[in-house]
Amino acid sequence: MDLTIRPVPPESRQALRLMCLGDSITEGFWFPGGYRCALCRCISENGLENCVSFVGEYCGGNMYDSHHAGYIGFGIEQIPAAESISGARSGLTAFAGKLLAAYPADIVFLLIGTNDILSLYDLAHFGDRLEHLAHMILQALPENGALCIATLPDMDAADSQYISPYFFTPDSMDAAVADCNRQIRAVTERLSNAGKPVYLADINPLLTKADLYDGVHPNETGYEKIGCFFFRMLLQFLPAHSAHLYPPAYA
Predict the structure, then answer these.
(1) pLDDT tens sequence for the chain (251 residues)
(2) Distance (Å, rounded) from C-alpha 52 to C-alpha 164?
(3) What is the pTM of this model?
(4) Strand 107-111 relative to strand 16-22, pairing
């Protein structure tokens, strides 16, 4: 798909502040920058670097702006060791408000929940935890801000590098991911219907298990697909920051 749009005139404008928030998939585990590489490349190729500024406490990856908020191994909320099959994990809800106060964002791309599944941590209440985190983020966003919540890529329990074969079969992992994605869609729909600026970033159908590097993290092709999807999603928010943005050529 052609992701090129007509160039934006060079007049000065306030950049949209974008936070990519999540776990190791956002950080770019094994492939520095992860999906942010493709996202930034699409932004750069379309001459939009001055329109989008990435925010977050970390930097990583070779791109025009490598700031991000990807936290390796994190869950939605803190996961106690006694309730996890993979040990204790930190969670985003412990500091999301402070993070956004320190690094204000207009748009947040949230991709989180993989480690909740890998921990088998109270998946029946996965959506409740996600909704609590979403409210924390929404409270920190400015007027006209937006939260995009992504579905999770499938995982392949046939690869046991990060997936316990004692607790997961390929079928049970598929079922767990599908159920958590159902909860993600339900939370997003519920918040949107309540008038909140929340949007579904449904990346799950884009990727197959062939797009995985180690059963959990995307390979280069998988990261590319996610980054290009997020770029297309980003375009809908840019007109509010630039009256000169042309519609995408592929629309």
Answers:
(1) 445 444 444 444 589 999 999 999 999 999 999 999 999 999 999 999 999 999 999 999 999 999 999 999 999 999 999 999 999 999 999 999 999 999 999 999 999 999 999 999 999 999 999 999 999 999 999 999 999 999 999 999 999 999 999 999 999 999 999 999 999 999 999 999 999 999 999 999 999 999 999 999 999 999 999 999 999 999 999 974 444 433 333 22
(2) 40
(3) 0.91
(4) parallel
Domain presence at residue 15:
no
Domain of residue 55 covers 20-240
Secondary element (H or E) of residue 179: helix 170-193
For 121-142, give one letter per residue: b (16+ CB within 10 A) or e: bebeebbebbbebbbbbbebbe
Domain CATH number, residue 83: 3.40.50.1110
Q: 109 pairs with which residues across the strands?
A: 20, 148
Q: Would you call 220 helix, strand, or coil by DSSP? A: helix
3 assigned to some structural domain: no
Nearest to 75 by CA among 180, 179, 170: 180
DSSP string covering 110-154:
EE--HHHHHTT--GGGHHHHHHHHHHHHHHHSPTT-EEEEEPPPP
- Distance CA(249)–CA(93), nearest Å, equals 39
